Amino acid sequence: MGSKPLRRTPGRYALGALAATGAVLAATACSTPEGGGGDGDAAEGPFTIGVSNGFIGSEWREQMLSTLEDAFAEYQEEGIVDELVVESADVDVNGQIQQIRNLIRSDVDAIIVNPNSPTALDQVFAEAAEQGIQIVAIDQAVESEHVTNVVIDQAEWASISAEWLAEEVGDGGEIIAVNGIDGHPANEDRWEGAQAVFDEAGVEVVANDFAEWDQSKGQTVTRDLLSSNPDVDGIFVQDGMALGAFQALQAEDKVGEIAMTGEARVGYMKQWAEQREENDDYTSIGVPNPPSVSVSALHVVVRMLQGEEIASDALDGNSLFLPIPDPVTDDDFDERFDEVADEPDAYAVDHAITREEADAYFE
């Protein structure tokens, strides 16, 4: 085979064209990769990797794709992979089913999917598995036996900031909650984890609404909830919306008066830094939700394609749980902020397992 054209969207955060449509990132390859690897046997490389992303309404997803592209390029230079086929658009479940079928027709060896549903994609996952395609889900877990979830525990992730907020407002405290997308698997897992903490701590959630992991919507939803519940003690807000929630508090002149969970993103951390200078008593927390889970999944799926087996004690059901990075707190804020202060406001504090750390999950 001759040289394939390279079509790559330039710039780390200039992923608009890539995120809005299916795209192929191709490099020079000397042979057509063989499909397979789904039975645990090693397949010949280089491997073609597909990506299905069904939601493009957040900068987090852009960072997820960008870091994956960078990591893929390193494997590409080593001749281990040859093409990254990306299907990325704002679609419902049926649209994501079509994305995955497109990837199957593209003769990919593996699919990395950020799923829109924990169960509704089961049939198309089975179709891919029948073709010997390895499937890895990221960001949120799915139930299909044909899929290996490479994820953080979203319930545990939410419980960390919920525990902080419960301590701030105390037994009998009243809070409002700004959550992500109603019915979305990651959102449901997070809220289940947070609610368990609040119930145990005696914290009452007086109102709950959804802002779709969007800062502007986060500001609007927080403003509306505060208008109906002006005397609350705290706000639980998921990442991707905390800066907007903070701006709503600013508009009501209630920053520092109402406790609020934050986020480990640069835009919010800038506001946190300013508050620390103005008010020694200001406190917050930001639990990283690393977009580079995509990179961790790439390390895992490459090893699966190479015939390695995940150790049985590394799995919880069909899930390989990644470590949740340490939260950003008042105690280590200055050091953590210095590490990312020059990044764009939308940048999320990130982490991926290394190749060596990925090796440890395998027999």
Automatic annotation (TrEMBL):
Keywords: Signal
Localisation per UniProt entry: Cell envelope
Record's signal peptide: 1-26
Cellular component per GO, a single term: cell envelope
A molecular-function term among this protein's GO annotations: carbohydrate binding
Top-level taxonomic group: Bacteria
Domain Periplasmic binding protein: 49-309
Pfam families: Peripla_BP_4 (PF13407)
Major localization listed first in the record, in broad terms: other
Family membership: Belongs to the bacterial solute-binding protein 2 family.
Protein name: Ribose transport system substrate-binding protein
